[in-house]
């Protein structure tokens, strides 16, 4: 572990983690597992696929310290803006505390940048005052496209840049460096995809990542690492 990494408690680590069950095959049991883990460890937010939200609202109704997140345009980002706006409105009305949307990756790669930025602006206006995290899916982008997307997301007024859905591949330190090169600390950064160890999380946190989207097994593994480390200090 990097000796320059500040000591962070397991309680603080938990408040950096959005625990998720957002695969196409995530089952009711998977969602119940992440809810149980969120209650046990006090994770900051739970993210299911939208169809499982009623279960999450019911199970977390007495645990307001854990937020409930909704996903828009997930995982492709290729829906029409009208569809994304309807979904965002539905999630906000249902009671979600945070919204993570996927930008239109195909349009970004096609150079249709005004349309990409305008869509983000519209979604932000729809969900406000809820925080909006915009997913660019770094594993599918070139370095230059990552830089362009970072600038667009910042300019469109989103609250977070998010690196991925977790479906397409892992976020690397190189990806984080590219994003930080463009936006510095002017917008918060959430990493999803490939964060499976405490060392990885701490190194990324040191580089300025303030939230992590992590699946059930990896989140529990990280918490176990952190708690064991504390027990031996």
From TrEMBL:
Top-level taxon of origin: Bacteria
Gene: deoC
Protein name: Deoxyribose-phosphate aldolase
Swiss-Prot/TrEMBL keywords: Cytoplasm, Lyase, Schiff base
Active site residues of this protein: 100 (proton donor/acceptor), 162 (schiff-base intermediate with acetaldehyde), 190 (proton donor/acceptor)
Major localization class: cytoplasm
Metabolic or biological pathway: Carbohydrate degradation; 2-deoxy-D-ribose 1-phosphate degradation; D-glyceraldehyde 3-phosphate and acetaldehyde from 2-deoxy-alpha-D-ribose 1-phosphate: step 2/2
Any one GO molecular function term: deoxyribose-phosphate aldolase activity
Role this protein plays: Catalyzes a reversible aldol reaction between acetaldehyde and D-glyceraldehyde 3-phosphate to generate 2-deoxy-D-ribose 5-phosphate.
UniProt family annotation: Belongs to the DeoC/FbaB aldolase family. DeoC type 1 subfamily.
Catalytic activities: 2-deoxy-D-ribose 5-phosphate = D-glyceraldehyde 3-phosphate + acetaldehyde
Compartment annotation: Cytoplasm
InterPro entries in the cross-refs: Aldolase_TIM (IPR013785), DeoC (IPR011343), DeoC/FbaB/LacD_aldolase (IPR002915), DeoC_typeI (IPR028581)
EC number: 4.1.2.4
UniProt xrefs under Pfam families: DeoC
Top EC class of this enzyme: lyase
């Amino acid at each position: 572990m990097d000796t320059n990494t500040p000591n962070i408690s397991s309680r603080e680590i938990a408040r950096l983690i959005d625990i998720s069950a957002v695969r196409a095959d995530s089952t009711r049991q998977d969602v119940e597992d992440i809810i149980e883990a969120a209650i046990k460890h006090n994770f900051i937010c739970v993210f299911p696929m939208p169809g499982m939200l009623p279960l999450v609202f019911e199970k977390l109704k007495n645990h307001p310290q854990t937020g409930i997140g909704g996903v828009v345009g997930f995982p492709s980002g290729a829906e029409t803006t009208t569809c994304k706006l309807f979904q965002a409105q539905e999630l906000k009305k249902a009671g979600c505390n945070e919204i993570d949307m996927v930008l239109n990756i195909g349009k970004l790669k096609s150079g249709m940048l005004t349309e990409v930025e305008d869509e983000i602006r519209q979604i932000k206006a729809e969900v406000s005052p809820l925080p909006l995290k915009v997913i660019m899916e770094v594993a599918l982008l070139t370095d230059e496209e990552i830089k362009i997307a970072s600038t667009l997301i910042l300019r469109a007024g989103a609250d977070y840049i998010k690196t991925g859905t977790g479906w397409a591949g892992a976020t690397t330190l190189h990806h984080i460096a590219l994003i930080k090169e463009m936006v510095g600390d002017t917008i918060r950064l959430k990493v999803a995809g490939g964060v499976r160890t405490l060392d990885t999380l701490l190194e990324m946190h040191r580089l300025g990542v303030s939230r992590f989207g992590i699946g059930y097994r990896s989140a529990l593994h990280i918490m176990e690492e952190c708690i064991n480390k504390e027990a031996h200090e």
